[in-house]
Write a structure and sequence with these properties.
single chain, 750 residues, alpha/beta, Rossmann fold, Immunoglobulin-like, six-stranded mixed β-sheet, 27 strands, globular, binds alpha-D-glucopyranose
Length: 750
């Protein structure tokens, strides 16, 4: 049985304008009284005050020296014509600004928003790194600790999690998300929303989450930020929307729209996305904030003729709050008075915003998040640093380890620590670390120094810069390597080479870092390469010739300690890649779940004649989705399926045995992939449908079980109807998408 997205969307969309709390708002203690209080307030509000609740400004100048901007903004807040401020943080500053709002006629408290993307004062690994941990509990805990610190500092709302599926590493914002897979991305979206918001809004250790950027921003053409997106409906519904639905189901209090146009319509003016899907079919009761200036950007897009037209298109399409474009502030009131915008749309948007302010408890106590004593205690809680180090350890991916050069031996007398990122601190915090004190970040050199003490001599040389073509430091680096037993080379990107507006047309390791590697390789010393960056990078010489490669991402405040623990085996790495690493930019997009058998598959290795292949390179990635090694080994055995045929109402129980066949304890992420062999729409060669992270002592063995239900077999057909089709399914269980250890098949009966 299938149901059509189109039909059900249309029917429910008409209900979308009726704002009533849905079951998803289960955390609202007494919905009825909040709704009554909102109605009472709405009845008193002037049109200007209503528009004010839909207006958000950046307040970074509010706490600085006198300026026209500061005066104007304070006046707006005092007059009740600004409802939210971003980029004001800290108890002192937020209390000061909130006091101004409390002097307004109706005393409606401000919402303070901030990009708490991967930590507040304590910087956690970037979200893409956290995704590499595949550890949902750890990810949830990291978000909770970030929220706890932010909330203790007067922040009510984080603009996270970014849940954009991203398959193109040229796009710098891959660092903010969970990678290329919708299933992993959906699980992580849920974990992060629950981490930020807790079970119930209103606690002083929780903030409003914000699922962003709605939608399909990660599919920007050519990986160029802010660009257009052209997507089939199937790709939109099967790949890019699921993590948003997961965030909504987890109770995400807010959504943020995106800068891209989707199939010709800018997201901020896109009724299909915001009204038909989000507020209609999904019955979303939170509010949508535009991304920075995106309402006004409909003009340069050529979608609105001026800002007034842009404001009308945006409110009609379901954009509730205007971040920093001034379109609502300057034009929404006049559009209502001219009869061009129905006041009901404005009232619905205001109700959604006020509902969150009530749920946070701000009307009962506008200063509940402004407690200086709590701020001091929370921001200095060592628990956060311990958690940040543990998450960094979990996120690191051992890409290669030949001749067991890792873990490093404590018996080593000398280790050369070389490269432009050996002493880096700011770079380890990565992009979007808005409240951190980077002087407190532990560098790789500091981490190793603490680890080895006086037993081992660490010999440092920079070698080269991250960018630029100076080779002046090579000679000293080579000399340093010659005088050591092992070389640890730390290379990668600077903190501002990935992130927003950081698209790169060439994702090779920047500068002359790979040449430095070659020069060191010529010494014949064992070389361990640590790569620190915000995205998949290309480094083929290192991939081919290094003895070991540890991908550290941007590991945050405790990065150096985490790296040292992994390099010396005090933590056995278990990270798995959440994105495919290409061999060449020309392979992009190369996501594992975008690989189809095609009509001309390569059937014999090396035979690419008239096949779907390149004449100048391989189809396969350098490092595959789900790849990551351990200091131990695992055996997969005894695969059993509860049935080889199933009807629509039945499930398949899958069981296997996992054994740690090495000498040290470790964790393995057991991945379950399916392939629908024949369907009315061709299906990818592999789709991740489940995973389990399993800890095993050396020699220990455990049963691992999965359930395959009908939903895991479903997809959208040509009529965009969701459902599963009878036929054969291939089951693959593995340690990576390209390291399948057990296979089987089953049949779905008509
Ligand atoms: C930026 C980003 C968005 C962020 C917002 C506020 O342009 O696109 O992710 O939350 O503006 O800083």
């Amino acid at each position: 049985m299938r149901f059509s997205v189109y039909k059900s969307t249309l029917v429910i969309a008409l209900l979308g304008f009726v704002s009533f709390p849905s079951h998803a708002q289960k955390h609202v203690a007494d919905t009825a009284s909040i709704e009554q209080r909102i109605s009472g307030l709405l009845a008193q509000m002037t049109l200007e005050e209503k528009v004010g609740q839909l207006t958000q400004y950046t307040g970074s100048q509010l706490t600085g020296p006198a300026s026209i901007r500061k005066t104007t903004l304070l006046n707006s807040i005092r007059e009740g014509t600004a409802g939210s401020v971003l980029n004001v943080k800290g108890v002192k500053d937020t209390r000061e600004v909130q006091t101004v709002a409390m002097a307004s006629r109706l005393k409606i408290p401000l919402l303070f928003g901030l990009d708490v993307i991967h930590g507040y004062k304590t910087v956690f690994p970037i979200p893409l790194a956290e995704a590499a941990s595949w550890d949902l509990d750890a990810i949830r805990q990291a978000a909770h600790l970030a929220a706890r610190e932010a909330a203790a500092s007067g922040v009510h709302w984080t603009f996270a999690p970014m849940v954009d599926v991203a398959r193109d590493p040229r796009w710098g914002r891959v660092m903010e998300g969970a990678g290329e897979d919708p299933y992993l991305g959906s699980q992580i979206a849920r974990a992060r929303v629950l981490g930020f918001q807790g079970e119930k809004l209103g606690g002083t250790d929780a903030v409003l989450a914000c699922a962003k950027h709605f939608a399909a921003y990660g599919a920007a053409i050519a990986g160029r930020d802010y660009n257009a997106v052209d997507l089939s409906p199937q790709q939109l519904w099967e790949v890019y929307l699921p993590p948003f639905k997961a965030a909504l189901d987890a109770g995400a209090a807010t959504f943020m729209n995106s800068f891209n146009a989707l199939n010709g319509v800018p997201a901020t003016g896109n009724r299909y996305l915001q009204r038909d899907i989000l507020k209609g079919k999904w019955n979303y009761q939170g509010f949508v904030v535009s991304d920075w200036g995106s309402i006004a950007e409909q003009v340069p897009w050529g979608y609105a003729k001026d800002k007034a037209d842009a404001a009308q298109k945006a409110i009609t399409a379901g954009s509730d709050m205007d971040m920093e474009s001034d379109a609502y502030h300057n034009h929404l009131g006049e559009l209502v008075k001219a009869g061009k915008v129905d006041i009901a749309l404005v009232d619905d948007a205001v109700r959604r915003v006020l509902r969150k302010k009530f749920e946070l408890g701000l009307f009962d106590d506008p200063y509940k998040f402004s407690n200086e004593k709590r701020e001091k205690q929370v921001l200095n809680d060592p628990q956060s640093r311990v958690a940040a180090r543990q998450m960094a350890e979990k996120s690191m991916v051992l890409l290669k380890n030949e001749k067991a050069v890792l873990p490093l031996s404590r018996q080593l007398h000398s280790v050369a620590v070389i490269g432009p990122l050996v002493r880096a601190k700011r770079d380890l915090d990565g992009s979007w670390s808005v409240a951190s004190d980077t002087t407190l970040t532990v560098s790789l050199l500091e981490g190793l120094t603490r680890k080895v003490g006086s037993k081992t001599q660490l010999r440092y040389a920079k070698g080269c810069d991250v960018t630029g073509d100076s080779r002046a430091g090579f000679a000293q680096a080579v000399e340093t390597a010659k005088n050591a037993e092992v070389v640890v080379l730390a290379v990668g990107e600077t903190w501002n080479m990935s992130g927003e507006a950081k698209s790169r047309s060439d994702i090779h390791l920047p500068g002359v870092q790979e040449e430095l590697f070659q020069a060191l390789k010529a010494t014949g010393k064992p070389i361990v390469v640590v790569v620190l960056g915000g995205r998949p990078l290309i480094f083929n010489a290192i991939s081919d010739q290094a003895d070991a490669i540890l991908y550290g991402w941007w590991p945050g405040s405790e990065g150096g300690n985490a790296l040292a623990n992994v390099l010396y085996g005090d933590y056995n790495p278990a990270g798995k890649l959440p994105m495919s690493f290409p061999r060449a930019v020309g392979q992009i997009p190369i996501a594992y779940n975008q690989q189809y058998n095609t009509g001309r598959p390569i059937t014999k290795p090396g035979d690419a004649t008239y096949k779907s292949a390149y004449i100048d390179g391989a189809n396969t990635p350098r490092f595959a989705f789900g790849h990551g090694l351990s200091y131990t080994t695992f055996k997969y055995s005894d695969l059993k399926l509860s049935r080889s045929q199933l009807t629509a109402a039945e499930n398949v129980q899958v069981q296997l045995r996992l054994t740690n066949t090495g000498k040290v304890a470790g964790e393995e992420v057991v991945q379950l992939y399916l392939r629908d062999m024949v369907a009315s729409v061709v299906r990818p060669l592999q789709e991740l449908k489940d995973f389990k992270k399993v800890h095993l002592q050396a020699g220990e063995s455990k049963a691992v079980a999965f359930t395959i239900d009908r939903d895991k077999l479903a997809f959208y057909n040509q009529q965009l109807e969701w459902g599963a089709e009878p036929g054969e399914f291939k089951l693959m269980i593995g340690s990576a998408s390209n390291d399948i250890r057990l296979e089987s098949k089953f049949e779905l009966l008509p």
